[in-house]
Protein backbone atom coordinates (compact mmCIF):
# COMPACT_ATOMS: atom_id res chain seq x y z
CA UNK A 1 0.00 0.00 0.00
CA UNK A 2 2.83 2.29 0.88
CA UNK A 3 4.32 1.75 -2.52
CA UNK A 4 0.97 2.22 -4.18
CA UNK A 5 0.41 5.79 -3.21
CA UNK A 6 3.16 7.42 -5.23
CA UNK A 7 2.36 5.23 -8.16
CA UNK A 8 -1.24 6.26 -8.08
CA UNK A 9 -0.25 9.86 -8.34
CA UNK A 10 1.48 9.21 -11.62
CA UNK A 11 -1.14 6.85 -12.95
CA UNK A 12 -3.17 8.34 -15.77
CA UNK A 13 -6.58 9.57 -14.75
CA UNK A 14 -9.73 7.81 -15.86
CA UNK A 15 -10.17 9.91 -18.96
CA UNK A 16 -6.55 9.47 -19.92
CA UNK A 17 -6.85 5.73 -19.74
CA UNK A 18 -9.88 5.78 -21.96
CA UNK A 19 -8.04 7.93 -24.44
CA UNK A 20 -5.14 5.50 -24.42
CA UNK A 21 -7.43 2.66 -25.26
CA UNK A 22 -8.97 4.48 -28.18
CA UNK A 23 -5.52 4.84 -29.72
CA UNK A 24 -4.88 8.48 -28.81
CA UNK A 25 -1.24 9.48 -28.36
CA UNK A 26 0.19 9.98 -24.93
CA UNK A 27 1.93 13.30 -24.65
CA UNK A 28 5.53 12.87 -23.52
CA UNK A 29 6.93 16.30 -24.31
CA UNK A 30 7.95 18.59 -21.51
CA UNK A 31 5.14 21.14 -21.15
CA UNK A 32 7.23 24.23 -20.49
CA UNK A 33 9.72 23.53 -23.25
CA UNK A 34 6.92 22.89 -25.69
CA UNK A 35 5.25 26.15 -24.75
CA UNK A 36 8.51 28.04 -25.15
CA UNK A 37 9.17 26.45 -28.51
CA UNK A 38 5.74 27.43 -29.74
CA UNK A 39 6.12 30.96 -28.42
CA UNK A 40 9.52 31.33 -30.09
CA UNK A 41 8.35 30.12 -33.46
CA UNK A 42 5.08 32.07 -33.39
CA UNK A 43 6.93 35.25 -32.52
CA UNK A 44 9.49 34.59 -35.26
CA UNK A 45 6.76 33.89 -37.82
CA UNK A 46 4.77 37.01 -36.90
CA UNK A 47 7.91 39.13 -37.04
CA UNK A 48 8.83 37.60 -40.39
CA UNK A 49 5.41 38.28 -41.91
CA UNK A 50 5.39 41.87 -40.66
CA UNK A 51 8.87 42.44 -42.05
CA UNK A 52 8.18 40.87 -45.39
CA UNK A 53 5.14 43.10 -45.83
CA UNK A 54 7.42 46.12 -45.36
CA UNK A 55 10.00 44.84 -47.79
CA UNK A 56 9.42 46.22 -51.25
CA UNK A 57 11.03 43.84 -53.67
CA UNK A 58 10.12 44.25 -57.29
CA UNK A 59 9.41 41.15 -59.33
CA UNK A 60 10.73 42.84 -62.41
CA UNK A 61 14.15 43.33 -60.83
CA UNK A 62 14.14 39.73 -59.65
CA UNK A 63 13.15 38.45 -63.06
CA UNK A 64 15.79 40.52 -64.81
CA UNK A 65 18.41 39.34 -62.38
CA UNK A 66 17.51 35.70 -62.83
CA UNK A 67 17.49 36.00 -66.60
CA UNK A 68 20.94 37.59 -66.62
CA UNK A 69 22.32 34.84 -64.41
CA UNK A 70 23.05 32.16 -67.07
CA UNK A 71 25.00 34.71 -69.09
CA UNK A 72 27.15 35.73 -66.12
CA UNK A 73 27.56 32.13 -65.03
CA UNK A 74 28.80 31.11 -68.48
CA UNK A 75 31.25 34.03 -68.44
CA UNK A 76 32.47 32.95 -65.02
CA UNK A 77 33.04 29.45 -66.37
CA UNK A 78 35.51 30.69 -68.97
CA UNK A 79 38.09 31.07 -66.27
CA UNK A 80 41.07 33.08 -67.45
CA UNK A 81 44.67 32.48 -66.39
CA UNK A 82 45.87 35.81 -67.73
CA UNK A 83 45.73 37.80 -64.47
CA UNK A 84 47.19 34.94 -62.42
CA UNK A 85 50.44 36.68 -61.48
CA UNK A 86 48.68 39.89 -60.61
CA UNK A 87 46.16 38.06 -58.47
CA UNK A 88 48.80 36.06 -56.62
CA UNK A 89 50.62 39.31 -55.92
CA UNK A 90 47.39 40.79 -54.59
CA UNK A 91 46.69 37.75 -52.46
CA UNK A 92 50.21 37.90 -51.02
CA UNK A 93 49.69 41.56 -50.20
CA UNK A 94 46.43 40.69 -48.45
CA UNK A 95 48.15 37.97 -46.45
CA UNK A 96 50.91 40.37 -45.50
CA UNK A 97 48.43 43.00 -44.38
CA UNK A 98 46.77 40.39 -42.19
CA UNK A 99 50.13 39.24 -40.84
CA UNK A 100 51.42 42.73 -40.04
CA UNK A 101 48.15 43.65 -38.38
CA UNK A 102 48.22 40.57 -36.21
CA UNK A 103 51.85 41.13 -35.21
CA UNK A 104 51.28 44.76 -34.27
CA UNK A 105 48.05 43.94 -32.48
CA UNK A 106 49.70 41.19 -30.47
CA UNK A 107 52.33 43.63 -29.22
CA UNK A 108 49.66 46.13 -28.20
CA UNK A 109 47.32 43.52 -26.78
CA UNK A 110 49.81 41.73 -24.56
CA UNK A 111 50.54 45.01 -22.80
CA UNK A 112 46.96 46.16 -22.50
CA UNK A 113 45.38 42.83 -21.62
CA UNK A 114 47.26 42.74 -18.31
CA UNK A 115 45.81 46.15 -17.53
CA UNK A 116 42.32 44.85 -18.12
CA UNK A 117 42.30 41.39 -16.54
CA UNK A 118 40.48 41.71 -13.22
CA UNK A 119 42.94 39.64 -11.19
CA UNK A 120 46.14 41.47 -12.10
CA UNK A 121 45.12 44.99 -13.16
CA UNK A 122 47.19 47.61 -11.32
CA UNK A 123 44.55 50.34 -11.60
CA UNK A 124 41.00 49.00 -11.26
CA UNK A 125 39.07 51.97 -12.63
CA UNK A 126 41.35 52.36 -15.64
CA UNK A 127 40.85 48.72 -16.52
CA UNK A 128 37.12 49.10 -16.33
CA UNK A 129 37.16 52.26 -18.44
CA UNK A 130 39.30 50.54 -21.07
CA UNK A 131 36.83 47.69 -21.14
CA UNK A 132 34.02 50.01 -22.21
CA UNK A 133 36.19 51.69 -24.83
CA UNK A 134 37.11 48.30 -26.23
CA UNK A 135 33.48 47.23 -26.30
CA UNK A 136 32.67 50.21 -28.49
CA UNK A 137 35.66 49.60 -30.73
CA UNK A 138 34.61 45.99 -31.16
CA UNK A 139 31.01 46.91 -31.91
CA UNK A 140 31.91 49.04 -34.93
CA UNK A 141 32.25 46.64 -37.88
CA UNK A 142 35.78 46.17 -39.21
CA UNK A 143 34.84 47.44 -42.63
CA UNK A 144 33.87 50.79 -41.16
CA UNK A 145 37.21 51.10 -39.39
CA UNK A 146 38.98 50.56 -42.65
CA UNK A 147 36.74 53.05 -44.38
CA UNK A 148 37.76 55.63 -41.76
CA UNK A 149 41.43 54.77 -42.12
CA UNK A 150 41.23 55.07 -45.89
CA UNK A 151 39.54 58.46 -45.51
CA UNK A 152 42.34 59.73 -43.30
CA UNK A 153 45.38 58.05 -44.91
CA UNK A 154 44.43 57.49 -48.50
CA UNK A 155 44.21 54.16 -50.31
CA UNK A 156 46.78 51.45 -49.78
CA UNK A 157 47.94 48.68 -47.55
CA UNK A 158 48.98 51.03 -44.74
CA UNK A 159 45.43 52.24 -44.35
CA UNK A 160 44.38 48.59 -44.26
CA UNK A 161 46.76 47.79 -41.42
CA UNK A 162 45.74 50.90 -39.51
CA UNK A 163 42.03 50.22 -39.94
CA UNK A 164 42.33 46.58 -38.96
CA UNK A 165 44.53 47.36 -35.98
CA UNK A 166 41.67 48.67 -33.85
CA UNK A 167 39.17 45.81 -34.09
CA UNK A 168 41.94 43.19 -34.06
CA UNK A 169 43.61 44.58 -30.95
CA UNK A 170 40.35 44.94 -29.11
CA UNK A 171 39.43 41.35 -29.95
CA UNK A 172 42.82 40.05 -28.88
CA UNK A 173 42.86 42.10 -25.67
CA UNK A 174 39.51 40.68 -24.68
CA UNK A 175 40.48 37.11 -25.49
CA UNK A 176 43.86 37.45 -23.76
CA UNK A 177 42.32 39.04 -20.68
CA UNK A 178 39.82 36.21 -20.41
CA UNK A 179 42.70 33.75 -20.59
CA UNK A 180 44.66 35.63 -17.91
CA UNK A 181 41.64 35.67 -15.63
CA UNK A 182 41.31 31.93 -16.07
CA UNK A 183 44.86 31.26 -14.90
CA UNK A 184 44.94 30.58 -11.20
CA UNK A 185 45.47 33.34 -8.67
CA UNK A 186 47.96 31.22 -6.72
CA UNK A 187 50.92 32.38 -8.76
CA UNK A 188 49.99 36.01 -8.37
CA UNK A 189 49.49 35.66 -4.63
CA UNK A 190 52.70 33.71 -4.15
CA UNK A 191 54.74 36.23 -6.08
CA UNK A 192 53.10 39.17 -4.40
CA UNK A 193 53.84 37.73 -0.97
CA UNK A 194 57.56 37.56 -1.74
CA UNK A 195 57.51 41.16 -2.89
CA UNK A 196 57.58 40.89 -6.67
CA UNK A 197 56.69 44.02 -8.60
CA UNK A 198 53.80 44.13 -11.04
CA UNK A 199 56.10 43.81 -14.04
CA UNK A 200 57.83 40.81 -12.47
CA UNK A 201 54.52 39.10 -11.78
CA UNK A 202 53.39 39.68 -15.36
CA UNK A 203 56.56 38.74 -17.22
CA UNK A 204 58.08 36.11 -14.92
CA UNK A 205 54.99 34.65 -13.32
CA UNK A 206 52.08 34.75 -15.74
CA UNK A 207 53.35 35.14 -19.28
CA UNK A 208 55.36 31.89 -19.56
CA UNK A 209 52.29 29.79 -18.82
CA UNK A 210 50.08 31.83 -21.12
CA UNK A 211 52.11 31.64 -24.31
CA UNK A 212 50.48 28.47 -25.66
CA UNK A 213 46.86 29.58 -25.14
CA UNK A 214 47.75 32.96 -26.57
CA UNK A 215 49.20 31.32 -29.67
CA UNK A 216 45.96 29.41 -30.17
CA UNK A 217 43.98 32.65 -29.97
CA UNK A 218 46.37 34.38 -32.36
CA UNK A 219 46.17 31.64 -34.96
CA UNK A 220 42.38 31.74 -34.79
CA UNK A 221 42.38 35.49 -35.23
CA UNK A 222 44.83 35.30 -38.13
CA UNK A 223 42.43 32.99 -39.91
CA UNK A 224 39.63 35.54 -39.48
CA UNK A 225 41.95 38.33 -40.46
CA UNK A 226 42.77 36.85 -43.87
CA UNK A 227 39.11 36.68 -44.83
CA UNK A 228 38.71 40.18 -43.49
CA UNK A 229 41.59 41.65 -45.53
CA UNK A 230 40.19 40.21 -48.75
CA UNK A 231 36.93 42.00 -48.03
CA UNK A 232 38.64 45.18 -47.00
CA UNK A 233 40.43 45.52 -50.29
CA UNK A 234 36.99 46.02 -51.73
CA UNK A 235 36.63 49.29 -49.83
CA UNK A 236 40.10 50.41 -50.86
CA UNK A 237 42.58 48.98 -48.38
CA UNK A 238 44.93 47.28 -50.80
CA UNK A 239 45.40 43.62 -51.56
CA UNK A 240 43.40 41.27 -53.72
CA UNK A 241 40.06 42.88 -52.87
CA UNK A 242 40.91 45.90 -54.99
CA UNK A 243 41.43 43.67 -58.02
CA UNK A 244 38.22 41.74 -57.35
CA UNK A 245 36.23 44.95 -57.06
CA UNK A 246 37.73 46.19 -60.32
CA UNK A 247 36.88 42.98 -62.14
CA UNK A 248 33.33 43.13 -60.87
CA UNK A 249 32.76 46.74 -61.80
CA UNK A 250 34.25 46.28 -65.28
CA UNK A 251 32.33 43.03 -65.84
CA UNK A 252 35.50 40.98 -66.33
CA UNK A 253 33.98 37.79 -65.04
CA UNK A 254 36.59 35.42 -66.44
CA UNK A 255 39.27 37.19 -64.40
CA UNK A 256 36.97 37.36 -61.41
CA UNK A 257 36.54 33.59 -61.50
CA UNK A 258 40.29 33.14 -61.26
CA UNK A 259 40.35 35.58 -58.35
CA UNK A 260 37.60 33.71 -56.51
CA UNK A 261 39.44 30.42 -56.98
CA UNK A 262 42.69 31.89 -55.61
CA UNK A 263 40.89 33.43 -52.63
CA UNK A 264 39.11 30.18 -51.92
CA UNK A 265 42.28 28.09 -52.03
CA UNK A 266 44.22 30.53 -49.85
CA UNK A 267 41.56 30.87 -47.18
CA UNK A 268 41.00 27.13 -47.16
CA UNK A 269 44.72 26.51 -46.73
CA UNK A 270 45.00 29.09 -43.96
CA UNK A 271 42.06 27.48 -42.19
CA UNK A 272 43.64 24.03 -42.46
CA UNK A 273 47.00 25.23 -41.17
CA UNK A 274 45.52 27.19 -38.32
CA UNK A 275 43.35 24.21 -37.33
CA UNK A 276 46.42 22.00 -37.32
CA UNK A 277 48.41 24.49 -35.27
CA UNK A 278 45.62 24.73 -32.74
CA UNK A 279 45.18 20.98 -32.38
CA UNK A 280 48.94 20.64 -31.96
CA UNK A 281 48.94 23.32 -29.28
CA UNK A 282 46.02 21.69 -27.53
CA UNK A 283 47.89 18.38 -27.34
CA UNK A 284 50.85 19.91 -25.49
CA UNK B 1 71.47 9.43 -13.55
CA UNK B 2 69.86 8.91 -16.91
CA UNK B 3 67.33 11.63 -16.31
CA UNK B 4 69.84 14.15 -15.20
CA UNK B 5 71.63 14.04 -18.50
CA UNK B 6 68.44 13.84 -20.54
CA UNK B 7 66.84 16.97 -19.14
CA UNK B 8 69.44 19.54 -20.19
CA UNK B 9 69.66 18.13 -23.72
CA UNK B 10 65.91 18.33 -24.04
CA UNK B 11 66.00 21.81 -22.67
CA UNK B 12 68.65 22.93 -25.09
CA UNK B 13 66.68 21.49 -27.98
CA UNK B 14 63.66 23.41 -26.87
CA UNK B 15 65.67 26.57 -26.67
CA UNK B 16 67.04 26.05 -30.18
CA UNK B 17 63.55 25.43 -31.44
CA UNK B 18 62.34 28.63 -29.87
CA UNK B 19 65.20 30.58 -31.39
CA UNK B 20 64.42 29.05 -34.77
CA UNK B 21 60.79 30.09 -34.63
CA UNK B 22 61.74 33.59 -33.53
CA UNK B 23 64.17 33.85 -36.44
CA UNK B 24 61.49 32.63 -38.83
CA UNK B 25 59.09 35.19 -37.47
CA UNK B 26 61.66 37.96 -37.91
CA UNK B 27 62.37 36.84 -41.47
CA UNK B 28 58.68 36.77 -42.32
CA UNK B 29 58.28 40.21 -40.82
CA UNK B 30 61.21 41.62 -42.79
CA UNK B 31 59.92 40.09 -46.01
CA UNK B 32 56.44 41.51 -45.43
CA UNK B 33 57.68 44.98 -44.68
CA UNK B 34 59.80 45.03 -47.81
CA UNK B 35 57.15 43.46 -50.02
CA UNK B 36 54.38 45.96 -49.31
CA UNK B 37 56.87 48.85 -48.85
CA UNK B 38 55.59 49.34 -45.35
CA UNK B 39 57.08 52.50 -43.87
CA UNK B 40 56.98 52.21 -40.12
CA UNK B 41 57.71 55.88 -39.51
CA UNK B 42 54.99 56.97 -41.84
CA UNK B 43 52.65 54.46 -40.25
CA UNK B 44 53.40 55.64 -36.73
CA UNK B 45 52.95 59.25 -37.72
CA UNK B 46 49.68 58.20 -39.33
CA UNK B 47 48.22 57.06 -36.02
CA UNK B 48 47.99 60.51 -34.41
CA UNK B 49 46.67 61.83 -37.72
CA UNK B 50 44.01 59.18 -37.69
CA UNK B 51 43.04 59.95 -34.12
CA UNK B 52 42.93 63.66 -34.86
CA UNK B 53 40.84 62.91 -37.92
CA UNK B 54 38.33 61.04 -35.77
CA UNK B 55 38.13 63.61 -33.02
CA UNK B 56 38.37 66.80 -35.07
CA UNK B 57 36.65 66.02 -38.37
CA UNK B 58 34.44 63.18 -37.37
CA UNK B 59 33.06 64.09 -33.99
CA UNK B 60 30.70 65.46 -32.85
CA UNK B 61 27.92 63.61 -34.65
CA UNK B 62 25.48 65.70 -36.60
CA UNK B 63 22.21 65.47 -34.66
CA UNK B 64 20.04 67.35 -37.09
CA UNK B 65 17.61 65.67 -39.44
CA UNK B 66 17.25 62.56 -37.31
CA UNK B 67 14.15 61.44 -39.21
CA UNK B 68 16.21 60.59 -42.25
CA UNK B 69 17.90 57.77 -40.33
CA UNK B 70 14.70 55.99 -39.30
CA UNK B 71 14.03 54.33 -42.61
CA UNK B 72 17.56 52.88 -43.08
CA UNK B 73 17.55 51.54 -39.53
CA UNK B 74 14.19 49.88 -40.11
CA UNK B 75 15.46 48.50 -43.41
CA UNK B 76 18.49 47.04 -41.68
CA UNK B 77 16.32 45.38 -39.04
CA UNK B 78 13.91 44.06 -41.66
CA UNK B 79 16.80 42.65 -43.71
CA UNK B 80 18.15 40.90 -40.66
CA UNK B 81 14.81 39.37 -39.64
CA UNK B 82 13.89 38.17 -43.11
CA UNK B 83 17.42 36.95 -43.78
CA UNK B 84 17.64 35.05 -40.52
CA UNK B 85 14.19 33.49 -40.88
CA UNK B 86 14.63 32.19 -44.40
CA UNK B 87 18.22 31.11 -43.97
CA UNK B 88 17.45 29.24 -40.76
CA UNK B 89 14.66 27.32 -42.52
CA UNK B 90 16.74 26.40 -45.57
CA UNK B 91 19.91 25.95 -43.52
CA UNK B 92 18.12 23.46 -41.28
CA UNK B 93 17.10 21.27 -44.23
CA UNK B 94 20.61 21.35 -45.66
CA UNK B 95 22.09 20.62 -42.23
CA UNK B 96 19.99 17.48 -41.88
CA UNK B 97 21.09 16.34 -45.31
CA UNK B 98 24.69 17.18 -44.46
CA UNK B 99 25.24 15.92 -40.92
CA UNK B 100 26.93 12.54 -40.73
CA UNK B 101 24.31 10.90 -38.53
CA UNK B 102 21.22 12.12 -40.40
CA UNK B 103 22.42 12.30 -43.99
CA UNK B 104 20.41 10.06 -46.32
CA UNK B 105 23.41 9.25 -48.52
CA UNK B 106 27.15 9.92 -48.24
CA UNK B 107 27.28 11.41 -51.74
CA UNK B 108 24.63 14.02 -50.83
CA UNK B 109 26.64 14.85 -47.75
CA UNK B 110 29.90 15.24 -49.66
CA UNK B 111 28.43 17.41 -52.41
CA UNK B 112 26.62 19.71 -49.98
CA UNK B 113 29.67 19.98 -47.78
CA UNK B 114 31.79 21.02 -50.76
CA UNK B 115 29.34 23.68 -51.89
CA UNK B 116 28.89 25.07 -48.39
CA UNK B 117 32.59 25.27 -47.69
CA UNK B 118 33.24 26.94 -51.05
CA UNK B 119 30.62 29.63 -50.50
CA UNK B 120 31.69 30.19 -46.92
CA UNK B 121 35.37 30.49 -47.71
CA UNK B 122 34.95 33.21 -50.29
CA UNK B 123 34.35 36.43 -48.34
CA UNK B 124 30.81 37.56 -48.17
CA UNK B 125 31.40 40.99 -49.69
CA UNK B 126 32.56 39.32 -52.93
CA UNK B 127 29.22 37.52 -53.25
CA UNK B 128 27.36 40.70 -52.33
CA UNK B 129 29.21 42.67 -54.96
CA UNK B 130 28.56 40.01 -57.58
CA UNK B 131 24.86 39.98 -56.68
CA UNK B 132 24.77 43.76 -57.05
CA UNK B 133 26.01 43.30 -60.62
CA UNK B 134 23.35 40.67 -61.27
CA UNK B 135 20.33 42.31 -59.66
CA UNK B 136 21.25 45.98 -59.80
CA UNK B 137 21.60 48.35 -56.87
CA UNK B 138 18.99 48.07 -54.16
CA UNK B 139 17.56 45.95 -51.40
CA UNK B 140 17.35 42.74 -53.42
CA UNK B 141 21.06 41.91 -53.83
CA UNK B 142 21.61 42.73 -50.16
CA UNK B 143 18.93 40.34 -49.03
CA UNK B 144 20.20 37.61 -51.34
CA UNK B 145 23.75 38.10 -50.12
CA UNK B 146 22.55 37.70 -46.54
CA UNK B 147 20.69 34.56 -47.58
CA UNK B 148 23.61 33.02 -49.42
CA UNK B 149 25.96 33.63 -46.54
CA UNK B 150 23.40 32.82 -43.83
CA UNK B 151 22.30 29.53 -45.34
CA UNK B 152 25.85 28.28 -45.66
CA UNK B 153 26.93 29.48 -42.24
CA UNK B 154 23.88 28.02 -40.50
CA UNK B 155 24.01 24.77 -42.47
CA UNK B 156 27.56 24.26 -41.26
CA UNK B 157 27.03 25.10 -37.60
CA UNK B 158 23.70 23.25 -37.41
CA UNK B 159 25.30 20.20 -39.00
CA UNK B 160 28.16 20.38 -36.53
CA UNK B 161 25.85 20.55 -33.55
CA UNK B 162 23.76 17.68 -34.94
CA UNK B 163 26.89 15.58 -35.30
CA UNK B 164 27.85 16.30 -31.72
CA UNK B 165 24.57 14.91 -30.33
CA UNK B 166 24.44 11.80 -28.19
CA UNK B 167 24.35 8.61 -30.18
CA UNK B 168 22.39 6.73 -27.52
CA UNK B 169 19.00 8.23 -28.25
CA UNK B 170 19.29 7.57 -31.97
CA UNK B 171 20.53 4.03 -31.37
CA UNK B 172 17.68 3.30 -28.98
CA UNK B 173 15.11 4.52 -31.46
CA UNK B 174 16.67 2.63 -34.36
CA UNK B 175 16.72 -0.52 -32.24
CA UNK B 176 13.02 -0.18 -31.53
CA UNK B 177 12.33 0.15 -35.24
CA UNK B 178 11.71 3.85 -35.72
CA UNK B 179 11.51 5.24 -39.24
CA UNK B 180 13.78 8.04 -40.48
CA UNK B 181 11.12 10.68 -39.84
CA UNK B 182 10.42 9.40 -36.35
CA UNK B 183 14.12 9.28 -35.61
CA UNK B 184 14.55 12.92 -36.50
CA UNK B 185 11.37 14.00 -34.74
CA UNK B 186 11.97 12.22 -31.44
CA UNK B 187 15.72 11.71 -31.11
CA UNK B 188 17.46 14.49 -32.99
CA UNK B 189 15.22 17.54 -32.73
CA UNK B 190 14.68 17.62 -28.95
CA UNK B 191 18.41 17.42 -28.31
CA UNK B 192 19.27 19.82 -31.08
CA UNK B 193 16.88 22.63 -30.01
CA UNK B 194 19.27 24.53 -27.67
CA UNK B 195 21.94 24.63 -30.35
CA UNK B 196 19.37 25.72 -32.89
CA UNK B 197 18.18 28.64 -30.77
CA UNK B 198 21.57 29.95 -29.90
CA UNK B 199 22.97 29.71 -33.44
CA UNK B 200 19.88 31.29 -34.95
CA UNK B 201 20.05 34.20 -32.51
CA UNK B 202 23.75 34.54 -33.27
CA UNK B 203 22.92 34.63 -36.96
CA UNK B 204 20.54 37.50 -36.29
CA UNK B 205 23.36 39.45 -34.64
CA UNK B 206 25.69 38.75 -37.57
CA UNK B 207 23.00 39.82 -40.01
CA UNK B 208 22.59 43.19 -38.30
CA UNK B 209 26.31 43.82 -38.62
CA UNK B 210 26.40 42.49 -42.16
CA UNK B 211 23.52 44.55 -43.45
CA UNK B 212 25.34 47.58 -42.12
CA UNK B 213 28.34 46.63 -44.27
CA UNK B 214 26.39 45.56 -47.35
CA UNK B 215 25.55 49.14 -48.17
CA UNK B 216 29.20 49.80 -48.92
CA UNK B 217 28.96 47.83 -52.16
CA UNK B 218 25.56 49.28 -52.99
CA UNK B 219 23.30 46.64 -51.53
CA UNK B 220 20.96 48.75 -49.38
CA UNK B 221 20.64 49.10 -45.63
CA UNK B 222 22.23 51.68 -43.36
CA UNK B 223 25.65 51.07 -44.90
CA UNK B 224 24.63 52.78 -48.13
CA UNK B 225 23.85 55.97 -46.19
CA UNK B 226 27.22 55.73 -44.52
CA UNK B 227 28.98 55.31 -47.83
CA UNK B 228 27.09 58.25 -49.27
CA UNK B 229 27.99 60.49 -46.33
CA UNK B 230 31.65 59.47 -46.53
CA UNK B 231 31.82 60.07 -50.28
CA UNK B 232 30.35 63.56 -49.86
CA UNK B 233 32.72 64.30 -46.93
CA UNK B 234 29.72 64.83 -44.63
CA UNK B 235 31.64 63.45 -41.68
CA UNK B 236 29.17 64.69 -39.06
CA UNK B 237 26.45 62.68 -40.72
CA UNK B 238 28.72 59.65 -41.10
CA UNK B 239 29.62 59.69 -37.41
CA UNK B 240 25.94 59.95 -36.49
CA UNK B 241 25.28 56.85 -38.58
CA UNK B 242 28.12 55.03 -36.82
CA UNK B 243 26.72 56.03 -33.43
CA UNK B 244 23.29 54.77 -34.46
CA UNK B 245 24.92 51.57 -35.65
CA UNK B 246 26.69 51.04 -32.32
CA UNK B 247 23.46 51.57 -30.41
CA UNK B 248 21.59 49.25 -32.77
CA UNK B 249 24.15 46.46 -32.51
CA UNK B 250 24.43 46.72 -28.73
CA UNK B 251 20.64 46.78 -28.36
CA UNK B 252 20.23 43.70 -30.53
CA UNK B 253 22.99 41.90 -28.63
CA UNK B 254 21.31 42.76 -25.33
CA UNK B 255 17.96 41.52 -26.64
CA UNK B 256 19.29 38.22 -27.96
CA UNK B 257 21.16 37.71 -24.70
CA UNK B 258 17.89 38.13 -22.79
CA UNK B 259 16.09 35.70 -25.09
CA UNK B 260 18.93 33.23 -24.68
CA UNK B 261 18.72 33.44 -20.90
CA UNK B 262 14.98 32.85 -20.99
CA UNK B 263 15.07 29.91 -23.38
CA UNK B 264 18.19 27.99 -22.47
Automatic annotation (TrEMBL), chain A:
Annotated stretches, region: Disordered: 1-24
Compartments, record wording: Cell membrane
Membrane topology: Multi-pass membrane protein
Membrane spanning residue stretches: 39-59, 91-117, 129-155, 198-218, 230-250, 256-274
Matching SUPFAM superfamilies: MetI-like
Keywords: Cell membrane, Membrane, Transmembrane, Transmembrane helix, Transport
Classification via CDD domains: TM_PBP2
Bias-annotated ranges (Polar residues): 1-16
Highest taxon above the source species: Bacteria
Any one annotated GO CC term: plasma membrane
GO BP term (any one): transmembrane transport
InterPro entries in the record: MetI-like, MetI-like_sf
Domain ABC transmembrane type-1 residue range list: 91-274
PANTHER family assigned to the protein according to its UniProt record, in alphabetical order: ABC TRANSPORT SYSTEM PERMEASE PROTEIN P69 (PTHR30043:SF1), PHOSPHONATES TRANSPORT SYSTEM PERMEASE PROTEIN (PTHR30043)
Family statement drawn from the similarity comment of this UniProt entry: Belongs to the binding-protein-dependent transport system permease family.
Protein name, entry field: Phosphonate transport system permease protein
UniProt lineage: Bacteria, Bacillati, Bacillota, Bacilli, Bacillales
UniProtKB/TrEMBL annotation, chain B:
Species in which this protein is naturally found: Paenibacillus phyllosphaerae
UniProt keyword Phosphoprotein present: no
Membrane topology term: Multi-pass membrane protein
Protein location: Cell membrane
GO CC entries: plasma membrane
SUPFAM superfamilies: MetI-like (SSF161098)
Protein name per the record: Phosphonate transport system permease protein
Keywords: Cell membrane, Membrane, Transmembrane, Transmembrane helix, Transport
Protein family: Belongs to the binding-protein-dependent transport system permease family.
